[in-house]
Specification:
It is globular and about 55 Å long. The protein has 6 helices and 10 strands, in the order βββαβαβαβββαβαβα. Strand 6 (114-119) and strand 7 (124-130) form a beta hairpin. A 5-stranded mixed beta sheet has the order 3-2-1-4-5, sandwiched between helices. A 5-stranded mixed beta sheet has the order 8-7-6-9-10, with helices on both faces. It is of the alpha/beta class and 227 residues long. The termini are far apart. 33% of the residues lie in helices and 27% in strands. The chain folds into 2 domains: 2-96 and 187-203, ATPase, nucleotide binding domain (Nucleotidyltransferase, domain 5); 98-182, ATPase, nucleotide binding domain (Nucleotidyltransferase, domain 5), CATH 3.30.420.40. Helix 1 crosses helix 2 and helix 3 (97-108) crosses helix 6.
């Protein structure tokens, strides 16, 4: 299975090529960025594909993060992945950013819970908690920081995601015992590729998982009456 993975959902612009029969990740690149993914993504994909030595016609799948994350970033990644999938006539697989954050930890120890918390601003997080064997303990949702703290306290879990340190700091006020904290700003693109290689196509459509309404709203009060 040869998979091109793309992630522009959070604070990075990343791509990787996975060849499951040829040694795993054969090329990858990740650029930290909050804005500018639209301009950076396709040149980055071209560099990664060239470094991999694999042509677009030889790919089996494109995997792309579906969120939650930045509204603009998600649209950039999904549009690019769909376009590449259409051009190469291959499936496009959606990968949740929450699952991608948890995967490295569940991959080495699926007996310990993992709480994923992604910064959603305004003292809120995108939250999902995984239990033994990757079972969902708390379904993906937009939640206050306090709910993520309670979820982490209940399971004495590993905490990962861009808001992981904030959750750990809040947890330490009531429970000073140490927990594993991984506050990287974006998931590992290699794991996006690995998830994209194994999930059933029908179970992972490339559709955005926003979990919240956009901050920008139409100004209905100022709209002109129709004639």
């Amino acid at each position: 299975m040869r998979v091109l993975a793309i992630d522009t959902a959070l604070a990075a612009c990343s791509a990787a090529v996975l060849d499951t029969a040829g040694g795993g990740i054969v090329a990858s690149e990740s650029l930290p960025m909050i804005r500018g993914q639209a301009e950076a993504l396709m040149p980055l994909v071209a560099r990664v594909m060239k470094a991999s030595g694999i042509g677009f016609a030889d790919l089996d799948r494109v995997a792309v993060t579906t969120g939650p994350g930045s509204f603009t970033g998600l649209r950039v990644g999904l549009a690019a992945a769909r376009g590449l999938g259409l051009a190469a006539a291959i499936p496009v697989i959606g990968v949740s950013t929450l699952s991608a954050y948890a995967a490295p930890y569940l991959g080495v120890d699926d007996k310990t819970a993992v709480v994923v918390a992604i910064d959603a601003r305004h003292a809120q997080v995108y939250l999902q908690a995984f239990g033994p064997s990757g079972a969902t303990l708390v379904a993906p949702r937009l939640a206050p920081l306090s709910e993520a703290t309670r979820a982490a306290a209940a399971a004495r879990s590993r905490i990962v995601g861009s808001a992981a340190q904030a959750v750990a700091d809040a947890l330490s006020k009531s429970d000073p015992s140490p927990v594993t904290v991984d506050a990287r700003p974006a998931p590992d693109i290699g794991w996006v590729a690995q998830i994209g290689a194994v999930v059933p196509e029908a179970a992972a459509p490339p559709k955005p998982q926003y979990l919240r309404a956009p901050d920008a709203q139409p100004q209905n009060a100022a709209s002109l009456p129709r004639r």
